[in-house]
Structure of Shikimate dehydrogenase:
Amino acid sequence: MMSARRVVTLPPTLRGPEALRFATDVRSRGADVLEVRTDLHPAEAVDAAALAGILDLLVSERGTPLPPAWVAAARWVDRDVVHAGALDAPAGKLLASHHAERPLSTEEALRLWDVAIPAGALVKHVEPVGELSQARVAVLLETQARLRARFGEGRVTLLAMGPVALPIRAVLAQRNVLDYVALGGDWKAAPGQRLLADAVREVKYPHPVPLPEGEGVVTRLGILGTSIAHSRSPRIHRQPFDRIDIPEDAPVEALVDALLPHYRGFAVTSPFKIRLARHTGSPLDAINTLVRRRDRWESFNTDTEGARTVLERLGARDVFVLGDGGASAAIRSVTPEVGCQLRFLKRAEISSPLAGCGIWTWPDRITPPDALRFEGARVAVIAYGAPARRIAAEITRRGGSPLMLGAAWFIAQARRQRALWENAS
């Protein structure tokens, strides 16, 4: 099976030479196509011919008509099949598209495409996800299959849209011609786009078990969390592995249930560890791993492996713990094994400087209480990457000495996750 061509959209803030540098950058990172849209850039803001010399160019008409110079330089020209009138792109360049305003049944979607599409044109159908359920995902897959049957294997792209659409887009991408992805940072062209790096990694390091056409071999893995662009999980676990970055108030319970037929497991990080423990009926206060067991999710907390490693590295008899979420639950559960006393400090209870040894479990997006101060305390940081550096700076600013133990925690828990996912069914 051929992989979808990876499309990155030119951000609206980039013009002229900056646009050319962006195109060169995304090409080096594995992008195949650059999209330029009329709702994001005026005609004079970009040199379409120069961009086309770097990457295949896709120009998309969004409200404002396409400049002739863009059309001339483009590999594909995106015109809305409903609102654009005559589909008059030059021969061989047309990408006929439709963006539905609501979720559609397969029959409703197919009726939209009861129009004459020139031979060889690409077809792109976009829908909001709507209410999350296995049935809803099945409808999108059925629409994709029926459009492929009508127009041909190498012509169809179906995209899901919305704040929790990322894993559904990843599943659909396995049968799409184009995969619209984001470079990263603060801007995405559409809600639900996955990262270019993850799409490239999936193709570069394929799962050792192939995905036969028409058979239900479930290979996908993913990590669920908020603000997880920095996550290293995709770098160490088997591919395909998706960073599913969703809002803190997202319906994560409905999402994992909807994805049960399509994923073999999930890593779970802040802020969903406690919610998914409750949802799966776990006896644990918090979980960080879901494993597919035929028609249900089984939950585990491999953070206990990380907690044990960090407490052993600290080597202290008395340890204070800042935060009381999923990581704290793992620390609490292994305390009897390592023989130390723990003090779990709520935010309102912190009124005097802390000394000795401690563990900071708050995510870096959470502002610590103003009263928090340290008297030379050694404080373990169990995050990693940029968040860990920000937390360490905060500890130092408040009089403490940070111990960077995030990698030790991460590796210990990830080894156990990998073993569990190998036995998923």
About this structure: The chain is about 35% helix and 20% strand. Residues 98 and 337 are 59 Å apart (CA to CA). The mean pLDDT is 91. Residues 134-151 form the longest helix (18 residues).
